[in-house]
Every structure is written in structure tokens, then in C-alpha cells.
Amino acid sequence: MNSFLRHHRPVLITLAVSLIVGIVAAGWNAGMLPLPGAEKVPPQAVARTHIQIDAKDPPVVQREVLGQDLQTLIKHGALLSGVMTTEPVIEKIARRADVPPELVSASARTTDLIPQAIAEPAALKRASDAQQVTFPYRFEAQARSTSPIIDIYAVAPTPDEAGRLANATVTGLQDYLDAMAAQQRFPAGELAVLRQLGTAQGRPIQSKSPLIIAVLTFITVAGITAGLLWAVVTLRRRRAGVPPRERPAPRGGGDWPHTTRVLPWMLAVFIALLWFAPFNQIELGVSAPIDLKLDRLVLPFLVIAWLLAFMAGRAFAPQLRWTAIHTAVAVFLGVAFLSVILNARALDSSLELDLPIKQLPLLIFFVSLFVITATGVRRTEVRPFMFYTLLLGVTCAFGVIIEFRFKQNLFFKFADMALPPIFHVDAVDPYETDGLGRRLVRGPADVPLETVTMLSLAFPVALVGLMQSDRWRSRLLYGLAACILVAGMFATYRKSALLAPVSIFVTLAYFRRRELLKLAPLGLVLLIVVSALSPGALGSTISQFTRSDAADVPTVSDRVSDYDAIRPDVLSHLAFGRGWGAYKAYDYRVLDSEILHRLVEMGVIGLLAFLAMPITAVLASRHVIRARDHDNAPMALAGAAGAVSFIVASTLYDVMSFPHAAYIFLYVAGLTAVAIAGPRPAEPAEEQVEPQPEAEAPPQAAEPVLARR
Predict the structure, then answer these.
(1) CA end-to-end distance (rounded Å), the chain
(2) What are the residue ranges spanned by the domains of the chain?
(3) How does it sit in the membrane (predicted)?
């Protein structure tokens, strides 16, 4: 017993300290322990009502209304919902509700009916004030997009106050409109008519949020504490000169695909699911706390197989490695959880805590795939898995080309045919277009941009294979694969289809300039084959860069305006953001950039943690790439190029909101981590000349020492 305690003393101390710190932090954050600064989660009540916008009597439901008149009323509703969040209207609503105006907060859902968001002059001030104050009285105005009705949701400490606040939104807005009409001498008879549809009645919230906050805080703080303490133990061992325990690589069962091991085969099946199934549009028809998408039903079986593999003996068990990529992924996961618990009380106060609670499991699924790949795949299996990824990518690209040419999405069609009726598969319109008139060619993904990201993560494997091949047959096959992937990207009509391959070529040129120059003739072949496979797509994509109004189209101007639109949120939550998954894009504003999403949800620290994942994948691969190891250097190079393309995609859309791209990136990052794990290889010189053997000289008599001098 004493020897056991002495041998495992660092582990036991780490666990004990982590548990104690986690329990104390959980009790303090949830207000369950009588600690300094700890406050109980305040009680809350909610109420709702509805405001119908009309132009005259009788009500719109009792008279004939032209379509354009109805649309005008709907736009009036969207406009008035924004007006309700301004300071003058909030003051009048507060007086009607008999509460102090400085304790009232308001928000409005931004709809696509208004081309430009209503700018509140005091938005920045109120956002900065929110950093110190949690408003006990809040209401949200949500204008419907199909009817002239504003839905009002009010929150207050008691049911009576919540009901008064909801009812006061109608009378307060009417007071403001009457005052403005009198001030500007506007005819009162031409004002919009506000009809309240039912009196609001408040009800208390039976919340389990204190327990949820406590559990989430314990998991986060205990996990972060354990990680930091173990890092300190590892550093102390290294400084003391204690070598890490090296375990021989498991060799039982053979290497995939010539193996009897279950884990790599299940991993291969799940990766095929990512490439071919529109799983984010497939849901089990059962009510559950989280969305039961297809991937979240299949991945737990892969996790179980991974856990069972540890029990199969050392010869079959996954190998635990640790690289800089592991550190980057772990830090990102920790910061995501930390951003939620630091804002948990504010999110609960605004009734938004359920948003990150539903999104955190999805993040755990993403990281789980990385862990399973980085531990379950052997170093000798990285090349077969990379080649397998290329085959899946080429097949997916071929399906996208078929969708482009024949307007048939085979991915959705086959999924609907293969799955039982208990699964619901969303239908897609092959003729659907976006605001610029471009067809939505999406493949198995949710949006075309996600399809481009998926194919760009497989594209480096084809180029690296082409550079490394010595036989013409292999070069021809890799070149054809590269052409099909690029044709699939351009078939989506997205500008990222040009930006992603360019970023990959730049990365390969940085590490393999001379080898890449040999592929220059491929450029002409690429243009011909892409034009043949996706006729017209190449020219249409390039014209989006060269047209005279290229900088003024909504896809560009909206992205530019996003930077100014998020300033209030960023300034009020600068360090850790609002919390992972807490930003309701369709309620506020759709941010076409993962960079901005991370900045809003996780702050500056979270943005740096997110960028650290792909950047670390590139930096940690350099020594293997420069060593030019025949087995691992090509795989590390392909992973680094894919990481660069992922960074480019992150600037173009909210990539982590679309699971196909996030899963495949972390899977490729896991393969890259396996390829670079192990002892650091020696880097060869830039120019390495093989020494020529010299002819043996005939033996000569020994020369006197003085003569040699």
C-alpha cells in the first residue's frame, strides 16, 4: 500500500487538489456555499404578450388587405420593434411599469426585412454598462417576418412585475408615438394602430440553473486545475532529468486496412459518414434535451469502441501521445467551457443559459474525434488513412459535380432512401439560389462554403502525393484526383473555391518550392479538366472578383459591416466573450466569419485559442516536413496545408457552426499529430551532395615527420 501511494503520489495529489478546487468554485459560482462574494441565483418570472400593427379600423383580420399593404405593415412591425429598444421608449415603458428606467434593458430581433440595422446612439454605453450591471427588468421584442405582429417577452423578479412590464411595452410605445406626433405636428389619425392581443400574465420560472451552473463549473475548474497541475509535474520531472516513460508502440492485429482491430474500422466508417451523409439535416424524431442529429447517434459507439480497445491488452490499446496540437485543442476546449461558466449567471438571468448548454456537447463531439484519431491511429496507418480521406474527398467532389450538372443531390436522396422512417431528412431544392442569384450546390453539407472547406482539406493529399510519386501511373491518378477536387469546389460558385486552393499552393510552395515548380504543367491541365467537368463554373467564380461592383455586393459589404456591428458585444465582454454558443445569430446578426464569432462568444482569449489550433498544426509540423522523412513528412505537409486552408475558411464564414468542416479538420489534425509524434528527426541541409567513393591509393612508405612538416 505504501509503495502504491509513493509511486502514484503526484497523480493522487493532482486529483485531490482538483476535486477540492472544483467543489469550492462550483459552490461559489452557483451561490450554494456561504463564501465571500457568493450570491444566490435570483428568482425570475416571465410574461409575454403580442402587439398587432395595423393602419386603421376595422382590424386587418376583418378586412381585405392587398399583399403590398400587408408587407408594409410587417415592415412597420420590424421598425417599431427596434424603436422600442431606444432610450426614450424604454423610459416611457419603465414609467408605465412603475420601475426605475435605469434597471430596464431591451433587445430586438434583427430580421432580414430591414436592410440596415437601427443604430442606437447609446448602444456602446449600454453595452459597457452591462459589464457591471445585470438588469433585473428586461424585455425582448421579436417582429414576425410573415405577419404584422410583435411578440413581447418580459423578465422581472416577480410574476406581477413581469406582467406589468410586458403590458407596459404597448402603452409605453403608444405614449412615445403620440409624443413624437405632437412634437412634429403629425396627424394622430395616420399613426400606426397598436392592438394588444391578450393581457400578459406573469409566472415564476422553476429553474434548475443553480445545479446546472454548479456541475458545469465543477467540471471546468476541476479539469483545468488537473491539467495545469499535471503540466507542472511534467516540467519538474524534465528539469530533474527524469526521462519520460517510453512504451513500445502496439503492434497487435496488424495495421489498417490489413487489421482485425475494430477501432480503426469504426473510425473509417464514421469518416465516410462525414463525407457522404448530410447528417446535420438528419434528425431522430424523438424529443430530447439536445438535438439528436445522426452524427451524435453514431459517434458514441465509436467512443465505446475506443474505450473497449484499452481493455484488449497493450498490443491492441490506443497509444496515448502528446504533441503541441493536443495542447492547442485542450486549451481551446478549456477556454470554451471557461467562457460559459464566467458568464453563466448573466446567461441565466437573460434566459439564455440553455444555448451554450446545448452547444457544449457538440464541441465535446468535435474534440472526441480528434482524441480518437490521435490515439487510435498508429503512425504506420497515417498514410493509408490520408489516402482513404483522398478517396472519400474525390467521391464527394464527384457527387457535387453531378449535382452541378444534373441538379440532383444524390447525398440527400440516398440518405432519405436508406434511413428508416423514424429519421427525418430535410428536403433540399436543387434549383435554390442565394441573394446574388448563385445556385446553392451544397453536396452533403449545409451550405456551399462548407463543401469547399471539406474538399480543400483533402486537396493537399492529392498535391503531396503528386509531388512524391515517381511513377507516371501514380502521378496520373493523383493529378486526376486534384482536378476532380478543384472542379467540385468551383461547382459551388463560391469565391472560396479559388481562395482555398491558392492558400494550399502557397503553403506547399513555402516548404517544397522546387518540387512544386515541377507541377507547373499541371496548371494548364487543371484548367482544361475543371472546365470540362464543371462548365462555366470557373469563369463565373473568377468574374465575381473582376466585376466592377465586386466590393459592393452584399457578400462583401455585409462582412465589412459585421466588424462595426459587433463592437458593443466585444467591448462589454472583451476577455472571454458572451460564452461559447451563447450568440443567437438569427436573433441579432449572422456573422459571416468564424473569427468574429469567436471574438463575440469567447473574447480575445478565445479567438487566440481558436487560431492556435490550425497555427500550431503548421508550426509543430515544420521539423518533420523539413526532415523530409519519406513516411511522415508528406503526411505532415498535407496536414499543415489543410490547416492553412481552414484558417482561410474561418475568415470567410462561421466554420465551427457547420459540423462537416469542423469534424474533418479535427480528424486531419489528429492524423497530423500522429505523424509528428515521436523523437525529433534531424533536418537535412538544403543542398546535400552524396560523397563519391575515392579510389584506393597503393600503400606508400611512411613519411618522416619532418618531411610532413
Answers:
(1) 73
(2) 1-37+208-240, 45-204, 252-548
(3) Multi-pass membrane protein
